[in-house]
Amino acid sequence: xxxxxxxxxxxxxxxxxxxxxxxxxxxxxxxxxxxxxxxxxxxxxxxxxxxxxxxxxxxxxxxxxxxxxxxxxxxxxxxxxxxxxxxxxxxxxxxxxxxxxxxxxxxxxxxxxxxxxxxxxxxxxxxxxxxxxxxxxxxxxxxxxxxxxxxxxxxxxxxxxxxxxxx
Amino acid sequence: xxxxxxxxxxxxxxxxxxxxxxxxxxxxxxxxxxxxxxxxxxxxxxxxxxxxxxxxxxxxxxxxxxxxxxxxxxxxxxxxxxxxxxxxxxxxxxxxxxxxxxxxxxxxxxxxxxxxxxxxxxxxxxxxxxxxxxxxxxxxxxxxxxxxxxxxxxxxxxxxxxxxxxxxxxxxxxxxxxxxxxxxxxxxxxxxxxxxxxxxxxxxxxxxxxxxxxxxxxxxxxxxxxxxxxxxxxxxxx
Lengths: 167, 238
Hints:
The complex is a heterodimer of chains A (167) and B (238). By secondary structure, chain A is of the alpha+beta class. Chain A has helices at residues 24-29, 47-62, 71-77, 85-92, 108-117, 134-140, 145-151, 154-164; strands spanning 2-4, 12-19, 37-39, 101-105, 121-123. Chain A has one domain (2-164): CGI121/TPRKB (PF0523-like, 2-Layer Sandwich), CATH 3.30.2380. With 238 residues, chain B is α+β, with helices and mostly antiparallel strands. Chain B has two domains: 4-81, Phosphorylase Kinase, domain 1, CATH 3.30.200; 87-230, Transferase(Phosphotransferase), domain 1 (Orthogonal Bundle). Chain B contains seven helices and ten strands. In chain B, a hairpin with a 4-residue loop joins strand 4 (68-72) and strand 5 (77-81). In chain B, helix 3 packs across helix 6 and helix 5 (178-195) crosses helix 7. Chain A: InterPro entries: CGI121/TPRKB (IPR013926), CGI121/TPRKB_sf (IPR036504).
């Protein structure tokens, strides 16, 4: 699936979900060699969550305020509420035990390269909600029940935190 | 990017636009040409950060506040969720006819609760007026709300106002002084008195909701009665 950004029309984000992953430890070891972001789907509330983070990552590149060394690690960094880069990348990125993963990249060519590197099967992003662990998201993002009662939207609570993260 | 202006104030412009394919409200602080450009950029940036921080802080406490989607600190622009369907409390009070007592009390209690929760975290909204609050009604299945009259009818039908959102934190600040909280309430009282003189008991009902939720209600309300006697500005001594 591809997504465009109103604020940065020159960027297009391509997302692909893989399930039944078998070579996650191999991918994790080579994470730096791939031109894409690996995202742990269990901590993603919705596609909008990724878009909000991607938007911030692009804006960081544009204004020269990147937090990490690449736009993709920035993307993963901005998925999380924590300012600890190392723990964020392992929590929201790929782990040795990952069995499902979302690939995010700004170049359609990378999707083809990744397809041969990944041992797993493609799945539609519409099934994203079935991977989401809302209990864990609530504790990681420290979302109170009273905040959820506003509009019952995890995505809104999460995007508020990402948008305000280290400003 | 196409956006259209919906409001302009002294320090900012508010647009409707699109972000991630959804309708969003875009709030931009405009440059003031009479200030030195360096100073101007610093002031605008500081204020926009203060505004968004207070919004985030208040939202965490459960005060209904539109979600912030992106802050462009370099250009002083905030992108936030659009409250839809929504109507300002001001428009509701001016346009709606035959509002039952029940709905008015529900509305007042929700406003009072919101202010109390803000004050509990020492957040002073700074500009409490009925146009800085929005009602998002519960929408019954299949209902189509095209304009404000439809929204008003829906609210009257539901016998419940739904969620009352607080918007515009442009003047908000953090303070734990009873004086600031009392002035905050006083500004609202004056605003209601001049805009909606027929809603005489509205402010009392708001205070009722405030008392139930604010931890320091007593101190703040005592202070409010002092502020009423002298007005918003404190007498300058010395």
